[in-house]
Amino acid sequence: MKALLTLLPALFLLSITASNAQEAGDGRLKEIAEMAKKDTFGWTVGGGIGLDLGGMGLLNPKVGSGGNRIGLGGLGTLVANRKEDKWFWNNGLSLQLSAQRLGKTSVNQATGFQKNLDVLRLTSRYGHKLATDKWFVAIDFFAQTLMLKTYASNYLSPVNAGDRVVAKLFSPVQITLSPGIDFKPDDHLSFFYSPCGIQLIYVADDSIARTGVHGNDITRDANGIITEYNKSFLGLGSEFKAAYNNKYFNNRLAVTSGLRLFSNYLKTPQNVDVLFSNNFSIVIFKGLSLDLLGEYFYDNDVKVQKDVNDDGVYEVTINPDGTTGGPDRLGRGGQWSGAFMLKYSMIF
Fold first, then answer.
1. C-beta separation of 300 from 271 below 8 A
2. In terms of Cα–Cα distance, which of 296, 299, 302 is closest to 338?
3. Spatial distance between the Cα atoms of 167 and 318, rounded to a whole number of angstroms
4. Sequence ranges of the domains in the chain
5. Do 150 and 156 form a contact (C-beta atoms < 8 A)?
6. What residues contact 130, with CB distance under 8 A and at least 6 apart?
7. Are 244 and 257 a contacting pair, CB within 8 Å?
8. Among 204, 222, 326, 347, which is least packed by CB within 10 angstroms?
9. 63 burial class (0-12, 13-18, 19+ CB within 10 angstroms)?
């Protein structure tokens, strides 16, 4: 009986101590969880740069050896995202640029750098949480232009007296602003839809706008000559965007994919504009990866070059009055582009 009376207070004190320890432990776990949750908020800034460098020089080449070549280019990306408890703001800037210079194999061959790829993009999306963590009311911004002045021959400098500038910075530029709903079922996938997106195509240079090849409003006569032109084109329509990103094989392979669809209510809404981008990044070392890029672009209002004679060379002459000549022609169609390069990425 005395032993029991001695044991009961000891058990009581032990239970109180254990209870306090458990409450302290639970409190510490909650504190750590809150700290981990807070660590996911705020700004995340990062970027990457990839280089496309290649060259081959020959002196007194033997028959069948080939010719000289210099290739320059690269990929640059910058990302700045902010996440808070009830809202997010994602921003991205990317540049894809590539040009090459081939050695002359005949006296009539043009010299200089030819453009391979030139795309400058800016994206931004702000979203505010609705009832759950998966639904957001959002506004999406998209802008695209190019960096380098380009001539009709696709060279960065004129190859003859008749070669004229057909594109340069802000000629053209495409801008889309769309309010809508953003659905994020998980951290890897998102779907955005806007029933009232505004799309603007603007060509800052008058001589380039006069050709009417970039989607700005034009009027032609019976002979196909442009009689009136406007430097801009304004569309109002429905926009859908889907994005996916994930990592596989212990983070050795990163996959990023994006799809953009836009239908203009005001002009041929059945012809949907498409931008489908994919990037596969294979890690070689920490921060260094081999990136494979593929993209498809279609805009019913933007002309592309057609290789009519199927010789692998796009030869289209664009005249100041908007007419075209040469063995090939301009027309509606999709543009495919692809590249692979070494890229170094980091988080600032």
1. yes
2. 296
3. 12
4. 8-39, 42-347
5. yes
6. 136, 137
7. yes
8. 222
9. exposed
Rounded-to-integer distance, Cα 310 and Cα 152, Å:
19
The CA distance from 208 to 164, in Å, is 9
* Class of domain 42-347 (CATH, top level): mainly beta
Length of the chain: 348
Closest CA to 171 of 148, 155, 196: 148
Q: In whole angstroms, what is the distance from residue 242 CA to residue 294 CA?
A: 16
Report d(CA 119, CA 219) in Å as an integer: 28
Question: Residue 9, SS3?
Answer: helix
In this structure, what token pair is assigned to residue 58? 């020959």
Q: Is 42 left (phi over 0), alpha (psi -120 to 50) or beta?
A: left
**pLDDT per position as a tens digit, 159-205:** 888 888 999 999 999 999 999 999 999 989 999 999 999 999 999 99
For 260-275, write each residue's pLDDT tens digit. 999 999 999 999 999 9
Identify each DSSP E strand in 38-112 by its residue range: 42-51, 54-56, 69-83, 87-102
**Paired tokens of 218:** 């034009």
